[in-house]
């Protein structure tokens, strides 16, 4: 079961365009992360056991981060922001929802740095690689110190493209308004809290603007 879980995990990296094959000739040693596959038992929706694997790099060895060359801080939703969403939803009689973004970190903004990954032996065996195989990283990977921030920036880009705007007092509380008519005040029709790869949302079920943003 764990072999299948490892194969599924590696497949997700290629489906999201995260990794591509290179060799030790192209890779720069001090810009190459070593990695490992973490294994654990999870549960399916019906309670049955499910093997789970996660490929993680040793991000704490990142030379750029150790030298302070980039910021790794990423915002997360606040208690006040979530309370605000729940209070407004209750007062207006809106229906709330929650969601978990699958493989969120693998969908972050593309790398702006040249980084490689040295896969563990069990991963190389599955992919048919050898000891000279290295993977060029095109997008953030689990364990990379700026992966949460790069996912937040990508999530923000997607939300803005759907006309959501961040609240000025909480960058993880997003608001959606009906299109403003000349001389009128914009009307709130949706709220969304973003907490890393988890979302809590609510909105006016009679609003075409809100329903379109959900689609």
Structure overview:
- The chain has helices at residues 2-15, 63-66, 79-92, 121-127, 147-161, 208-214, and strands spanning 19-23, 32-43, 49-57, 95-100, 116-118, 133-137, 165-167, 170-177, 188-195, 198-203.
- The relative contact order is 0.19.
- The protein has a 5-stranded mixed β-sheet with strand order 1-6-5-2-3. Strands 4-10-9-8-7 form a 5-stranded antiparallel β-sheet, with helices on both faces.
- The protein is 28% helix and 30% strand.
- It has 6 helices and 10 strands, in the order αβββααββαβαββββα.
- It has 215 residues and is of the alpha+beta class.
- It is elongated, with a radius of gyration of 21 Å.
- The protein has one domain (2-214).
